[in-house]
Amino acid sequence: MKKLILTSALSVLALVAFAQSNTSTTNQTGSNNNATVTQTGTNSTATQTIVGDNNTTEITQSGDLQTAMQTVTGNNNEAYTTQSGNENYAATTQTGDLSKATVTQSGSFQQAYVNQDGTGVALNEATVTQSGESQLANVDQMGAGNVANVTQSGLDQVADVDQMGTGNTATVMQDKPWEGIGGNSAVVYQNGDGNNADIHQTEQWNEATVNQLGVGNDAIVDQNTPVKDPEIKNIVTIDQDGEGNYAKAWQDGTRHIADIDQIGNNNSATTEQWGTDEVAPNNTAIVYQEGNDNTATALQSGMYNDFVSIRQVGDENEAYTTQENDGAEWQNPNNEIFIEQTGISGLVTVDQSGNFNDAFVTQGGFDNEAVVDQHDGSYMNVATISQVDFPSNSFAKVDQTGSYNQATILQDGVNIGSTAEIYQAESGNVASIHQNNQDNYYGTSSAMVYQNVGTTNSVATINQDVLGSANEALVDQFNADNVNATINQSGHDVGTATIQQTGTGHVGTINQYGLYTPLNTAVLQQGASNNTGTITQTGGGNNALVQQNWP
């Protein structure tokens, strides 16, 4: 009888083994459980199974073929695994109550899985730290206070964190300082409540995916790839579904791809991509936002071949994009920006420097504003702004410096007063503004083209087909030769058209076609010699002034 009691007591004591062929097994069922296994040297294995009450378990193994497994089912759980060098493997499973799990593995072929389920209190927390060689870590937590932290260093990391409900937070940090092929990948999926995800990866083949569905969403990814190899790129994908969303992807190196997808509530998205690779930078940033307080920012800095696409569907949209292009002309450094907004009071700003840049902005709704700035010696840039459907009280502006640039502004739909401005400097530029009103609404529209400082061989066209009074069109071409300007106005009541050209060899044309009793005014002023000016007006009460050899 005494022998039986002694055996039962031993089952709850710490089991310590130092044999070189190490194996250890601990099974406990109830009360104040505490289990410890410590093993050093060679063929290690340790297994613990504990079922209930005030659990604490711990496995420490050093050297050679370690494997460690811990399974705890209920109450005040904690579980620790520490393994050092060689063929590590660790699995921890905990189900209910105050969970905590820590796995630390160093050197060689680590893998670690932690699964915490959490019915009943379950203040889940999991930390996995692995160092050098072929890491893989998987953390899976279901409910309550979830926190997960994975840190992996050196070589072929993969990390997968899956958290379902309540206090979610996940941090993955991976590092590959060793030479060689391969490297990081991280996936975090979080389902509900206080979500946050932070992924930090450095050097080579980084990929990161974050999916978050509900409530406090926040996601930040930071990736770095300094390797000059056309096959090496880092990829970021962030999906967020609802409420306080915020997403940021920072990428440093070359050949980046970032895809951010946000559906509802307080959305904000930021991607920054930096790269100096002369072979094939090819940075891509795509942001899609569906509804509520959207903001999107994309910044790209590098050699060439950068691409930005932002699509915003509802509510308080704003989009800011910057591309800095350092590519040489022989590299065909073509950067592109596409922005689409639908809603009210949308704002778009585009800032591009360098050559061969393209910017396309589309806005649907009213009270929208779009500004495209292409500068710093820009060459053969294209900018197009389309404000459609209900562009009333909308504002569009294109500012280009350099030669052979093209700018087009279209304001089309129920147009009760809109403003369009194009500014171009230097030679060979083309500017075009179209303002149309598809319904029987009255308003005032304004269109201005300024082509100054050596804008030789430039062309400017303004078409206004807007019902209303006091429509204004102005083309100002100064200090240039051989420029061409055309203004066409049609509609009701009052229109004012002015063309001012200094230099020689200019062509200026103003056509005003009015319904009912228009009171149109046309002013055509041309300087120096060999200029041609034409004014055509229909209706009564019109005024026309032509001045040549002006001022």
Short description:
The chain is mainly beta and 551 residues long.
Your description of this structure?
With 551 residues, the chain is mainly beta. It folds into two domains: 181 residues, no CATH class; 209 residues, no CATH class. It is 2% helix and 53% strand. The strands form two sheets. It has a 23-stranded parallel sheet, with no helix packed on it. It starts with a helix and ends with a strand.
Number of domains: 2
Helix content: under 10%
Extended strand count = 45
**Spatial extent as radius of gyration:** 34 Å
Which ranges are low-confidence, i.e. pLDDT below 50, for 5 or more consecutive residues? 1-19
- What about the largest sheet? 23 strands, parallel
Distance between the termini: 122 Å
Give the mean pLDDT: 85
The amount of beta strand, in percent, is over 45%
Class by alpha and beta content: mainly beta
How many alpha or pi helices? Answer: 1
The rough form would be described as: elongated
Identify the notable features of this structure and list them briefly:
45 strands, mainly beta, elongated, 2 domains, 22-stranded parallel beta sheet, single chain, 53% strand, 551 residues
Give me the secondary-structure topology:
Elements lengths: L1 H9 L4 E2 L7 E5 L6 E6 L5 E5 L6 E6 L5 E5 L6 E5 L6 E5 L6 E5 L6 E5 L9 E5 L6 E5 L6 E6 L5 E5 L6 E6 L10 E5 L6 E6 L4 E6 L6 E7 L8 E7 L6 E7 L2 E7 L6 E6 L9 E6 L6 E7 L4 E6 L5 E8 L10 E7 L4 E9 L2 E7 L4 E11 L2 E8 L5 E6 L5 E8 L5 E7 L4 E8 L8 E7 L6 E7 L5 E7 L6 E9 L2 E7 L5 E9 L5 E6 L5 E7 L4 E6 L3
Parallel strand pairs: 1-3, 2-4, 3-5, 4-6, 5-7, 6-8, 7-9, 8-10, 9-11, 10-12, 11-13, 12-14, 13-15, 14-16, 15-17, 16-18, 17-19, 18-20, 19-21, 20-22, 21-23, 22-24, 23-25, 24-26, 25-27, 26-28, 27-29, 28-30, 29-31, 30-32, 31-33, 32-34, 33-35, 34-36, 35-37, 36-38, 37-39, 38-40, 39-41, 40-42, ...
